[in-house]
Design brief:
Cofactor: FMN
Largest sheet: 8 strands, parallel
Number of strands: 14
Pfam family, one: FMN_dh
Radius of gyration: 19 Å
Strand content: 5-15%
Keywords: Oxidoreductase
InterPro entries: Aldolase_TIM, Alpha-hydoxy_acid_DH_FMN, FMN-dep_DH, FMN_HAD, FMN_hydac_DH_AS
GO molecular function: (S)-2-hydroxy-acid oxidase activity; FMN binding
Structural class: alpha/beta
Amino acid sequence: MSMVCLSDFEEYAKQYLSKTTWDYYEAGADDCCTRDDNLQAYKRIRLRPRILRDVSLNDTRTTVLGTEISFPVGIAPTAFHCLAWHEGELATARATEALNTCYIASTYATCSVEEIAAAAPNGYRWFQLYLYRDRKLSEQIIRRVEALGYKALVFTVDVPYTGKRRNDIRNKFKLPPHLKVKNFEGMFQEQASFQEEYGIPANTLDPSISWKDVCWLQSISQLPIIIKGILTKEDAELAVEHGVQGIIVSNHGGRQLDGGPATIDCLSEIVDVVQGRVEVYMDGGIRTGNDVLKAVALGAKCVFIGRPAIWGLAYKGEEGVREILQILHDEFRLSMALSGCRNVAEINRNLIQFSRL
């Protein structure tokens, strides 16, 4: 099968993965309206290309938190990569290192933070963090990633409770016995008969999280803090006031609150209120280099892909994730050139026209 675009990898993964695994990765909350709108929203945006700009040379490089990456696409935190490929997150980390971009490792990884760091020792990595009722769990893993050279904490704030993912309930989704949430291996032995929710005891997540917990994180770690899960200008302003270093505009891939907005539709108001005081990133619905161009034009410093990385793993492990990233890189470079942009700094809102469709 000739893999030309990301939808080719999606089709392969749908056929290759078990139904339960496919349903887990594809799941949105409730009717999946927000999941689907993440994709459809890009089709409502048109580009206004400039011509005769000499695009014989163009440069896709950018920076995140002062570190140069090859183009403004990274890997979002997604769980359980070993369900898609036996090497799991190790393959993802190596592919991201090879393409010189940013990998956000998930708390719910099926490889430990130590194993991921060892697999790609020169890779640029952030760590995605949840806060638990037992804060010691969170603090212990923060200490581990600090020692391993992870460069930021990505605090996911949109999961006080897990969204209702109907197919996971129908399928009675559980990790197979040979896989574990490796970052917590051995930590729940005293709860040997616990009711499992995505690999850890149910009710481990803390629904009482609030802005005071951002202050708590700042009090125990010097790592930059990026808030993931902001969709409104009001919360973006609060994030800036609380001294975070970045915001990821995210609706959790449409897996939490159904009926919320597509992330690309939230981006402008958040960029406008932040006014450059912190970096703004986004995830959700990125499937082409055109999508990347539109997001960057609307003010995203970098975008992150979730499900497409899983499709790449399912296709061919590390090589598959490399191919996914390379396709997006090449499409982004072409879209830049066809729009008259020679480097990322030339991409701005003048490129954007919103369709009335």
